[in-house]
Write a structure and sequence with these properties.
Keywords: Thiamine pyrophosphate. Belongs to the TPP enzyme family. This is Thiamine pyrophosphate-binding protein. This protein is α/β, with parallel strands linked by helices. It folds into three domains: about 15-170, Thiamin diphosphate (ThDP)-binding fold, Pyr/PP domains (Rossmann fold, 3-Layer(aba) Sandwich); about 195-355, TPP-binding domain (Rossmann fold), CATH 3.40.50.1220; about 365-570, Rossmann fold (3-Layer(aba) Sandwich), CATH 3.40.50. It contains 22 helices and 18 strands. α21 links the parallel β17 (about 525-530) and β18. The mean pLDDT is about 95.
Length: about 575
Amino acid sequence: MTESHGTAPAGSVALLVGQTLAALGAGHAFGVVGSGNFEVTNALRAAGVPFTAARHEGGAATMADAYSRMSGRLGIVSVHQGCGLTNAATGIGEAAKSRTPLLVLAAETAGAAVRSNFAMDQLGLARSVGAVAERVHSAASAVDDVVRAYRTAVNERRTVVLNLPLDVQAAAAPAAFDGVGLRPVAGPAPVRPSQASVLALADLIAAAERPVFVAGRGGRGAREQLLELAAQSGALVATSAVAKGLFNGEEFNLGISGGFSSPLAAELIAGADLVVGFGCALNMWTMRHGRLIGPSAKVVQVDLEDSALGANRPVDLGVLGDSTETATAVLEVLRGRGAAATKYRTEEVRRRIKAEARWQDVRTEDLSTANDEGRGRIDPRLLSKRLDALLPAERIVSVDSGNFMGYPSQYLEVPDEFGFCFTQAFQSIGLGLYTAIGAAIARPDRLPVLGTGDGGFLMGISELETAVRLGLPLVCIVYNDAAYGAEVHHFGEAGHDGPDPADLSTVTFPDTDIAAIARGYGADGVTVRSEADLAGVRAWLEGPRTAPLVIDAKIASDGGAWWLAEAFKGH
């Protein structure tokens, strides 16, 4: 990918952009370097911002997304003009829909280069996937343009595409710059709820007999405040999938609310007479298309943005406010009214949660098939249970999208809310490996673990070379059913109404030796058809872990993921 635009001088705008971002505190950059983003990428590196070279721009975008989610620092994506940006579009869309603070540095053809093969409406593309479109307009405005984009990304939790025209990049900067004197971007002040909203929520909690609090990504910084409020209110707590691990250690924690709920968690959430979402969208996934909301239950949503309140379902009360501020204010009111209530926190509920709330405690029939002549298939639930016990507890789990996704989400425990990275807002398969690499770079103190299907893993497999090159001790669990399993189960016998069998040839494939392919990339690979084959995983865990481990798990069918069946029906 090249386009002639001259050599950027030592004091160029490209250099100025890199220096400014470093001075503002950019965390880590990811990208694929071409001629259009060569200078700005090297400027970032020279200024101290670490850079990871990906094999595809889509991989780079999702790596940066995962890095931002798990580190709390701004991830940077660097791409070439035109095709470099279009290659990254799905990853940018995922980040934008998830409201991930992210900054994409996109080279752009000069305004006068109307016949360039790379010319396109980059601003329009960015907006079409939900990102904010910005541009460095001139040498004189460059610092202000970068600061504006950075502030929007960090303070408004937005994905920003900052376009860098080639002629502007090559222009001389107005003066030498080393970041000295650049004012840091002030963070946003916490949004405090109105007193009327606080009193209204306190009244609803006081009137409820079986309250449940569900925290989403917006509640991740409010663990202690939410648990104190729940204890005062007699409420059970749960999370959306993206906040898994937030309430670890709490005896009245139900785990994930939604499609991944254990049978007990679903029963108790559906039995609530008040559901309060803190920084949680209460969408079809988290509420199972509304089936987790009882017919007479009141629903409250607490969010930083007015546009989010009631966006997915009607709510009885919408509270505009930060989760921490809201929980603190309501707790003060309730404590002023009397002692803590028992309500849903009975001894019987406590006992049942301890015995039944975790998927590891739910009994299922072993569907594994005999491994005669090396053709066995292992039950994915059994596989996930055994791996949960084998892998170190200090882990960071990433999950791709597909029929398999419930197994790692349900069975693989994580140490806290920063141990689970769930890039699912766009529902795109193929982002899992990218996610795992970005998460691994964000948390090098934890063992990175990926749960993916064969379709998604093969779709993004070029980045396995990146993981090998970085020497990541990444465990890739590939739930391999040689198919796009969601479509097989949806359009197969259960979902097919026609007189003739459904033609599934477009979504089924010959079995692939993914372990062998992984070894070709320089990773370690093991094929698992039975519990006995997990000896290979144990051996890797005992070794130096200097290369990724790819587990090609040939899984048996459990009849299809019902949580995805619900999603198909919902659409």
